[in-house]
Amino acid sequence: MADRALVGIVVVSHSARLADGVVELARQMAGDELSLIAVGGAPDGGLGTDADRIRQAIAAADRGAGVVVLGDLGSAILATETALEMIGPPNAHRVRISAGPIAEGAVVAAVQASIGQSLEEVLAAADGASGLDKGVTR
Known about the structure:
single chain, Rossmann fold, 14% strand
């Protein structure tokens, strides 16, 4: 698999600690070969998001197979959309924003990316994570 480009994953959160934690968890499941980048917090270290930092993370994560971005809240998605406008064609077409949950979505996306699945397959896994059975009984 080393000669094949893998889909990168970018985790965007308003909290640097949350983004870092999600990436740590996903990396434990997917391994170190995958490009998995956390972007959390505002540039001043407080809570928030930053489109330019997201743009840089997407560029760093894209190794030729595309990038799936997972965000924690709506404004993280808005900042990601702004980052995509900054990237522009032709590279923005290789980026997908997932509607899935940030933790579960990042883990399943990372696992699927690590086994060489396509951009659309990794996106589908991340999106589908909202329906994962956690084994809760009531």
